[in-house]
Amino acid sequence: MKASLLPLLHPVVALLAAPLLPGVINRVKAFHAGRRGPPVLQLYHDLARLARKGAVYSETTTWLFRAGPLLGCAAVVTALFLVPCGGLPAPVTFAGDLLLFAWLLGLGRFCTVLAALDTGSSFEGMGASREVFFAALTEPILLAGLAVLVRLTGAASLTGLYARITPTLWGDSAAVIVLVAVTFLVVLLTENARLPIDDPSTHLELTMIHEVMVLDHSGPDLALIHYGAALKLWVLGALLVGVCLPVRTGRPLPDAAAFLAGMVALAACVGLIESTMARLRLSRVPQLLVGAGAISTLAVILSLR
Q1: What is the pTM of this model?
Q2: CB-based contacts of 122: which residues, under 8 Å, 6+ apart?
Q3: Which of 11, 54, 99, 170 has its CA 20 to 30 A from that of 219?
Q4: What letter would DSSP give residue 278?
């Protein structure tokens, strides 16, 4: 593969394979429950079916409701171009790009919340308020974890710091990296509304967070929301896999293969978590996030020693 095309490897693979991750999660959950479960490619079929349908818009909504899914998905796609594939470089990299990465994830969330509020529904407004509240707790955790990695590697960009996460660094700072990995896992589960934070398979309960915000979306708009959610799962999963699987051979294909295997294993682990844990009471979720914040603070303190 030409070196000039190498940075495009991860975005192309992610754009094509991101819907596989929810499929793997659902298959693991079905296997654990003794069921056959949906096909691994089910989300692809759902996206194609929704794309062929028409969208229904309430008379109370404005252009914000229609723009929300598109802008939210676009923000996640843009963030994807900042994330390296393990040790392989990202297409866009510069000093401080991790701050832009966090901002883009926040922008995508803002667009979804704004579209939910534009409906004028108190039910969707309730879910939006919970989304924003939990985001206020998870964003500092994500930034603290990235700051620890910057401290350990001495690099100020995502591509630079992930290229320096090697077995040698693990041997020198294993305890700190494990703490960062734990906080990244909590961020992944929270940002993607997975169990035990939220149940992505329900649409009827008052404890919903993400699903309640998209109840009024339909057709291509709903397809964009589902596809953006799958991409967000991939993007945050890439951060975690890049930390936990420090395969840096310097050869593109082995590194990419190890990274993809790690992504599939991560999806299987998420499915196992959802199969063995019940959803937390809504009042317990902030306690979990505050605990994750304490872990990230401890990682920061240890990295400064």
Answers
A1: 0.96
A2: none
A3: 11
A4: P
Locate tokens 């955790």: which residue?
141
Q: What are phi and psi of 85, to 5 degrees?
A: -95, 85
pLDDT per position as a tens digit, 229-288: 999 999 999 999 999 999 888 888 889 999 999 999 999 999 999 999 988 888 899 999
Give 25's contacts (C-beta < 8 A, 6+ positions apart).
194, 267, 268, 270, 271, 274
Provide the 3-class DSSP secondary structure of residue 76: helix
> CB of 209 within 8 A of CB of 202?
no
Residues linked to residue 88 through DSSP beta bridges, in sequence order: 85
Q: Which amino acid type is present at position 40?
A: V
Beta bridge pairs of residue 85: 88
Structure tokens at 126: 């309730």
